[in-house]
Amino acid sequence: MTIQTSIQLFTIKDQLEADLEGSLAAVAARGFTAVEPYDFVRRAAPMADALTAAGLSAPSGHAFLASESFVNPDGSGTTLPVPSPAEVFAAAKVLGMHTVIDPYTAPERWESVAQIEETARLLNAAAEIGAGVGIRVGYHNHAHELEAVFDGVTGLEVLAGLLDERVVLEVDLYWVARGGVDPVALLQRLGSRVIAVHAKDGTLDPALVNAYPPADQVPAGDGTVPLVEAIAAAPALELAIVEFDHYEGDLFDAIERSRVYLDEKVAG
User: Which of 72, 163, 222, 249 is deepest in the core (most CB within 10 A)?
Assistant: First the structure.
């Protein structure tokens, strides 16, 4: 199967808010042909126009499907309600998106198997709605799903075992490594459930990783996360997605270097 390189647009969140069209044009100028939008329901139409103008597609996107309100990137909650699955999928259709991935559930929801069962129920219900309009549902991890362990099984794997077969996984390789789990072995165990990865790299330097956003992230191939080996362990992979939670250097240079590395090593 051909693996397509993409970029999670959260990487350029500040630039995107300041200049939607210009930011997407800059992404295309760095050699990307696909992107993964976030928070796209409120701006589906203008984003669709900007994607078309830049010659970009959006095969996947991030939207909350198993939470009642928005969760901040640092894990803190809000009282701001999220759009319904039906609204999310309608916006996804405007963008030509075929997979909508839940980006985050709060760490306190991973303290028991019963809580994970409830998350699975919500994702399965969303998948049923999505199937009716041709949209696939997925889930994206951070570290806490791997740090939670039940009878020797990580919380993410517990979730996978409870999901409807139509629900897929997007594994963030950096956060897996941050959670103390071998990304290669994890992807081997998850098998064909994984259709996308965030091919995010970092040094995992203990002095840099404890704050949010983490300060150790580097262009793909420059860190210690085994990106190529992990991707090779995912037999059904469709998307290798560049993402930075934070980067102090030239961000657009870093995303281009990441794309080149992935295109050379795993895409095609």
Answer: 163
